[in-house]
Design brief:
Blueprint: H1 3-17, H2 37-72
Helix pairs in contact: 1-2
């Protein structure tokens, strides 16, 4: 499993724990009832870091693909 897919999978596991909709592009939601605020902040920060890392990798790959695609046009 490559890095961005692992980061995305880990972010989805955190989303499940937070009772959020699956998928990194769905945005964040409210704190689940009964979860300590410190735990919520920790999980949200970890989630956001994983999503940013995965999206940065995908963005770099898309730029590389976009540049090579422009050569054919």
């Amino acid at each position: 499993e490559t890095f961005p897919f692992r980061a995305s999978r880990q972010a989805d596991k955190i989303r499940e724990r937070l009772s959020w909709e699956p998928g990194c592009l769905d945005g964040c939601s409210l704190k689940p009832k009964g979860m300590h605020i410190k735990t919520f902040k920790h999980l949200t920060a970890k989630h956001n870091a994983l999503v940013m890392q995965a999206m940065a990798w995908f963005g770099e790959r898309c730029n590389i693909i976009g540049e090579s695609f422009e050569d054919f046009i």
